[in-house]
Amino acid sequence: MNFILKISGSLSFRLMIMFMVGGYALTELMQVALRAKVGDQIEQNTFRDAMFYFDLLVDGGSGRIDEELATLVANERGFDILLVRGESMWSVGEPIILRHFDFNAVDQDEIPAPILRGGRRANDSFRTLEKAWHNGRFLVRTQSRGYNFILGFRPNIADQVQLWSIVSLIGLLALLFLTTRWLFKPLENISDVVFKIGKGNFRSRTNIKRNDELGVLGAEINQMADDIEGMLEAKRDLFLAISHELRTPVTRARVAVELIEDDVQREAVAADMKEMDSLISDLAEAESMLTRHSTLNREPQSISQLIIAELNEYFVDSGIASPEPSNDDYVLLDGMRIRLLLRNLLKNALRHTDLKQKRPTVSAAVGKEGLILEVKDSGEGIDAQHLGRVTEAFYRPDASRQRKTGGFGLGLYLCRNIVAAHRGTMTIESEPDKGTSVTVNIPHKVVIEDEDT
Q1: Nearest one of 254, 247, 248, 252 to 273, comparing CA atoms
Q2: 434: left (phi over 0), alpha (psi -120 to 50) or beta
Q3: I need a surface site. Which of 129, 265, 292, 318 has the fewest CB within 10 A?
Q4: φ, ψ for residue 239, nearest 5 deg
Q5: Domains of the chain, first to last
């Protein structure tokens, strides 16, 4: 049902319906024109056939009818033939009842030139030529050699016109379809670029080389992306400038803290200063990941060894199980920043998990497509209304922003930027009261040959 609604609401589908209706109407008009054209051609051919077969069937000297030949011609060509001479009458094929027909004289310009020339050369082979249409049958009458000769023919105009109409309609629809595809092909590029911009890739641009409305739209989207990227660059520059400017007074404050005589007060202030310094470092690192001049120190790294090193250094007492070391899980990574990614993900998982029930887990696998890293917890989860924004800077689902329920809202933002710098993707899935799963995909697997081989 959703597929039908999607198709019926698409611009291409509506255009195709419009073209099909227009094509059908055009085909009907074409059929009228074809009927007239085919009818004219049938009349011309029948005029020639009438004069030819009259001369063939009726002997010029004796005036006798070759009945055997007339019957053969009628059966082979589908003709109805009637020859009347005085009181005598001979016919073959479908009966021709003269009182049912209203014959009209054929204009000279309708008669084929060969018939006119032949009639002038032999006066007794051509005197008059008349025509009539009746119930789909065309009849030609001529008078010569003492006979009224009537030739009837029932052409299958409908089949001929129908065939040409179907061929024309198919050709027309194919032409309209290809033309429509060409006209609206830039929409695919525009849709793809808009989707990427919506996902945060502000460097994506349209490549429409046309001067029509869609080309103008593509250029305006590129300009919009340039403006947005410029504003984000300005914001990052501001964050970086603030971060660097804050480092000096924070460093001086940490030195001054050591002069406090009260041990309890000194340790409390020192902890606050350490957390502030960590905040400044995370903010500077997160913003530097997305600047135009950011560089990664990519080297072949074993993801299992990076996880083990991080757990041994920062999460010894967490109870999180370490993976088995492997020599087949090397990926082109900035090891320092991937460890920072792991650190933030594991801190979040531990903060939101009841360690009395179940420990968070970390797992990694490397395949043909690259690295798949997953950190999973069984905590309180994240409501759907917050799930799309938890990777924004300083955003926290907890509106009260209590220290015990979370940090400053930079952890997942930093993780997202590290993954983006590696040209990867990060997916967060969560259900309230069931837990949260963060999956990171990073390409570029590296094959490390065994030194023993």
Answers
A1: 254
A2: alpha
A3: 292
A4: -60, -45
A5: 2-159 (no CATH), 213-289 (1.10.287.130), 299-446 (3.30.565.10)
**Residue located via tokens 């504003």:** 231
Report long-range pairs for 135-138 (Cβ below 8 Å, ≥24 apart). Answer: 137/80, 137/94, 138/42, 138/43, 138/46
Q: How far apart are CA 378 and CA 343, in angstroms?
A: 18
Average pLDDT along the chain: 77
Dist CA 201 CA 281 (whole Å): 24
Which one-letter DSSP state was computed for residue 317? T
DSSP string, 33-99: HHHHHHHHHHHHHHHHHHHHHHHHHB-TTT--B-HHHHHHHHHHHTEEEEEEETTEEEEESS---GG
| Residue 76 tokens, joined | 């082979």
CA distance 364 to 128: 99
pTM score above 0.85: no
Non-local CB neighbours of 166 within 8 Å, separated by 6+ positions = none
Q: Residues with Cβ < 8 Å from 263, sequence gap 6 or more? A: none
Please give the single-letter amino acid code of residue 450. Answer: D
* DSSP bridge pairs for 91: 82
What span, in angstroms and rounded, lies between the C-alpha atoms of 269 and 265?
6
| Residue 73 backbone phi and psi in degrees, to 5 | -65, -45
